[in-house]
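Design review, sub-item: ligand-bound model
Attendees: FS, YL, KQ
YL presented the inputs for the zinc ion complex:
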Amino acid sequence: MIGDKKEIKRIEKLIKKAQRSLRLSSYKIRCNLVKADYSEYAGIICQHPKRTATIDFNRKRIHQELENTVIHELLHLLFNKHLSVAEDVFERQRKYKSLRKYQKGEEKIINILAPLLEKVIFENQRRR
Ligand SMILES: [Zn+2]
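KQ shared the predicted structure:
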């Protein structure tokens, strides 16, 4: 769609900046704008051996809280990079209740950290 390229460029710039702060620069991150009916802002798929990740941004919501969304998804990548071993163990042992609890906990922690980190990482940008 027309305009998408510009939007994606803008998002990629934010991602690059956040990646540096979160020490995730070794990852190649692709981002897509998707037409979605769900209310979520975005979703990420991580592939650690290849050090790639894809973030799908809900087109309807990129004009709200974009910076927070970028940090949020990159925090998922950060957690996943260092702690996915826990999820793997739960899955292997079929402890799905524990897996869900772990994932819920991750979401809660990210929701606490993202707004704080957003301020630190993107503060200068806003002061222009
Ligand atoms: Zn999340």
